[in-house]
Amino acid sequence: MVNSVFYAANSVYNMLTNDNNWDKLFYEIKLCNRSEEYPILAYNYKEEQKYYFTIPTGLNINDFISHKLDIATFLKVDQTNLKIEYKNNFALISIFDNDINNNYNDYIFNNKKGVPIGIDLNTKDIVYWNYYSPNECHMLIAGATGSGKSVCLDVIINNLIHRKDVELYLQDTKYVDLYKYKNKVKYYGEGTEGIEEILNRLINEMNKRYIEIRDKGDKKLKSIFLVIEELATFDPKEDKKIYKLLGELLSKGRAAEVYVILTTQTPYREVLPGLLKSNINTKIGLKVNTKEASKVISGDYDTLMNLRGKGHGKIFTANGEKEIQCFRIY
Length: 330
Known about the structure:
single chain; ten-stranded mixed sheet; four-stranded antiparallel sheet; 14 strands; 29% helix
């Protein structure tokens, strides 16, 4: 029965906003009384991830609890993050965060594997961004407000900033999110000021490194990371030169150990043209609010719409995709 629910959860039970999906779940797991009366969703507090159901005569809260694994599979959460209780004559199903599973400070990481991002929800293994791999170089983090985008970027920067072989260049277009790193990095810029100059500087450094590699062979280089927080601040039509320089850095930077990390709340085709997208091999898709945004990042209209938010996402690389819970950092 669990297997059948699992497959249903990935094909039929996609949109949690559609209350009828619960009817299909309860029918599948036969959660009903002798008169074939099923629980009815009475209240749905989406922001708090709480669901209140009527309890048909002849059933009690233990009947819900006995199907906890099936319900957790339907909601795409670990059953340890699911609580089922009797409250105010209703069956209350709640999803809650388990800090043990995603608190950055609770883990010891192997930096040789890359930058830690979060936990693989299927295997429970740590997911690393292996940025020096041609299959994973450069990164895009996309998600709506509240999806966990800023926290995910914080985790990445906090890991990179403590590495002696790394130089960080940060462009804080919103003046707030990256300000705390201002005096800890090689370069910190605010708004749109200075971005063209920095892109030119990094391209010159990239070309210089290529000449050194050609003339002297492989040598140990410091990895350079350019982080642009909120790509949508720039307009591809108005800022053509910036997009052209960024495209050059993305297409040629990896072999010179120059990497780019971009974030955006609006991952639309206008913001993320093909020249940029095709050269970014690692994409972290968090919860979005439109089908178009989900399609641009994941290739599917619903995949990112169905995420819970708060760091629940998908990571896409040339090696495939994984469902993850991004780390939190305090």
